[in-house]
Amino acid sequence: MKVKAYTLNSFAKCIEGGNPAGVVINADDLSEDNMKKVAGIIGFSETAFVMNSDLADFKVRFFTPNEEVDICGHATIATFSTLLSQGRIEPGKYFQETKAGVLSVELKEDLSIMMNQNTPSYYETICKQEIADSLNITTAEMSEELPIQIVSTGLRDILIPIKNIDMVNAIKPNFEKVSRISSKYNTIGYHIFTLESLNGSNAYCRNLAPLYGIPEESATGTSNGALACYLFKYGKIKSDNTNHIVIEQGYSMEKPSEIIVSLITEGKEVIEIKVGGKALNLSEIEVEI
């Protein structure tokens, strides 16, 4: 059986940047097992499968090479870029049915794509020493003013503040320990960040999700949505600067990526969150399963 799929790089800062995703746009006849096979053969961190929906404009399911996840930011960007390229949509607002709920997606005239995420949930903080051991660093390299905390805007991630870019780039994780701790806290993985940046952005980060078969990811929509909310909560982003938050990722992998986050806030509460960027380098492939 042959399945037509598309590949492209979401959140790309340039052609070689971004996070690659696979997209299958007519997936109604594929079984879950076949979706898993396609995702495994394509081999990217996530592949999206687009189906008809009774609840929204499209139903989208997301698979890593290992298993299904509820939502994926960069694969959503890839999905709607692909639908645009194939003449299925034009600039405007759409809704996608996902396992994280029915979420809105906006395709802007400049072809950037912004997607709504769930409002943030803040969970427990985690001992710095436990995390430091898994990253082969000392707690002295971690921020003294920000906690290690689990935050979710659809997926639970462990947010880990580090003092500077050099320290972030130098981290050589023990992936077995990272997986074990991610599983222990029922999280996707680690989102390591610093408030230093290369291009005047709000933060610079690396994302590790070895539990889901992704040692490191070059651009992560959901994690950066959670990070923006966390930075607002702890006063690192002021209420008059929440409309255009920029986060750098992928530079440690030579895949420069830029993730845009927009928050609407009331007092100290985030009441709406959008995450987005652009996708580049569309290709069509055929997968044999």
UniProtKB/TrEMBL annotation:
This is PhzF family phenazine biosynthesis protein. The keyword Isomerase applies. Belongs to the PhzF family. InterPro entries: Phenazine_PhzF-like. Keywords: Isomerase. It comes from the Bacteria. One of its GO terms (molecular function) is isomerase activity. Pfam families: PhzC-PhzF (PF02567). GO terms for cellular component: cytoplasm. The active site is at E46. It comes from Clostridium botulinum.
